[in-house]
Design goal:
The chain has 345 residues and is α/β, with parallel strands linked by helices. The chain is 43% helix and 15% strand. The structure holds pyridoxal-5'-phosphate (PLP).
């Protein structure tokens, strides 16, 4: 039997894995690249959805975490730590459990989707809610590494970005070429940096003749890169990108410059429209932050006939509250044929 073995094995030639004896994997990656028929019609282009919600813990964070935990283990670490808007903690907790390591997670109190909190808890992480926002949680996680024998697995850990570059590899492997545009949500800006590295390495290695323009999208209430200054109190329904001072700000600006791309803002209303459109028209249930990529191309348009890939970073099931509150709770009717007939006609 031979199946998909996970990113570090499948793309081993693109990594530096010296000193690694044991790979920690949950067979992440190899996610679908779906052609989006109705979205393509709406923007007069060929749009594909890279659905990262189908990774083992339900987001692209697994791509970086297989690398970060594998390396941490090879270096003899026994505990990892992260500050998180939710998905990093879910992935860290899952891979730490697989590796037999301890995981400490700092999340902003009340500002993480309930599914993500549930994941970190059931995978056995030590979860602490901080009376503060994500940026403070990350700062504290960083500081703790100076005082305790713990390895940080946020995207400031370079192993995370390395693993995440595989998203770009998979897109080129399926399309046979890089797209014209890669549209991607931006929070801490690690993923846009990682995708660009992947496209660039494939280009240099002769796997792709061209490079895409990188289009990043931030939520309007948490758009420091668009504004050009940190945002002290970021606010958005898209909690995964509710970040006021991105760790990979400078690399992201380089990506935009080198790829002739851009980073722009979409409002929460535009994000929710795209989120609902994706579910109803493309049958893809992603989380609100993920829909920022699609909100962006709907808002700003794309060149006619171009090939566009929108990265849908996480699974909608992680944030059931948003889906339910957007739709409203279903009506309750009496358990009788009569009542049903009345309601449905
Ligand atoms: C982490 C995350 C993002 C943002 O990615 P960055 O690398 O922080 O820019 C977007 N969407 C989801 C679902 C995420 O989990």
């Amino acid at each position: 039997m031979s199946g998909w073995k996970g990113l570090l094995t499948e793309y081993a030639e693109w990594f530096h894995l010296e000193g690694v004896r044991e790979v920690v994997t949950l067979q992440e990656g190899n996610t679908p690249l779906l052609f989006a028929q109705r979205l393509s019609e709406r923007v007069s282009a060929n749009v594909y959805l890279k659905f990262e919600g189908l990774n083992p813990s339900g987001s692209f964070k697994d791509r970086g975490m297989t690398m970060a935990i594998t390396k941490a283990k090879a270096n003899g670490a026994s505990t990892v730590i992260c500050g998180s808007t939710g998905n990093t903690s879910a992935a860290a907790a899952a891979y730490a459990a697989k590796a037999g390591m301890e995981c400490v997670v700092l999340v902003p109190e009340g500002k993480i989707a309930v599914g993500k909190l549930a994941q970190a808890m059931i995978y056995g992480a030590r979860v602490l809610q901080i009376r503060g926002n994500f940026d403070q949680a990350l700062d504290l996680a960083r500081e703790l590494t100076q005082h305790l024998p713990v390895t940080i697995v946020n995207s400031i850990n370079p192993d995370r970005i390395e693993g995440q570059k595989t998203g770009a590899f998979e897109i080129v492997d399926v399309l046979g070429e890089a797209p014209d545009i890669l549209a991607i949500p931006v929070g801490n800006a690690g993923n846009i940096t990682a995708y660009w590295r992947g496209f660039t390495q494939y280009h240099v290695g002769g796997r792709a003749a061209r490079l895409p323009k990188m289009w990043g999208f931030q939520a309007a209430g948490a758009a420091p890169i668009v504004l050009g200054h940190p945002v002290a109190n970021p606010e958005t329904i898209a909690t995964a990108i509710r970040i006021g001072n991105p760790a990979s700000w400078v690399p992201a600006l380089e990506v935009i410059h080198e790829s002739l791309g851009d980073i722009r803002a979409v409002t929460d209303a535009e994000i929710l429209d795209a989120y609902q459109f994706l579910a109803r028209q493309e049958s893809v249930f992603c989380e609100p932050a993920s829909a920022a990529s699609v909100a962006g191309i709907l808002k700003f348009g794309v060149p006619e006939g171009s090939t566009v890939v929108c990265v849908l970073t996480g699974n909608g099931l992680k944030d059931p509250d948003t889906a339910v509150s957007l739709s409203g709770m279903p009506p309750v009717v009496d358990a009788s044929l009569d009542a049903l007939m009345k309601t449905l006609s």
